[in-house]
Specification:
single chain; mainly alpha; 2 helices; 0% strand; rod-shaped
Length: 74
């Protein structure tokens, strides 16, 4: 089960990095400064991917812990 959560998190992280790379390249070429905007876009995409992946995992872990508590009470 832990492997599935890790794969989901890493998929979100990779997706965020790819979107950030594309956005950074677009802004960098528009402003004429790709060297600045490329790493900024990758960093922003990485943070976004981690945030999206973490919020879903947190909700799943809270649901799992509440189900365990309910089964212990029964």
């Amino acid at each position: 089960m832990d492997k599935k959560k890790t794969d989901s998190s890493s998929n979100k992280m990779v997706l965020g990095m790819c979107l950030g790379l594309a956005l950074g390249t677009a802004v960098g070429s528009a402003t004429g400064n790709i060297g600045l905007w490329l790493p900024v876009g990758v960093s922003a995409g990485l943070c976004l991917g981690l945030a999206l992946g973490g919020s879903k995992e947190d909700a799943e872990s809270e649901q799992d812990s509440s189900e365990e508590e309910n089964s212990e009470k029964s």
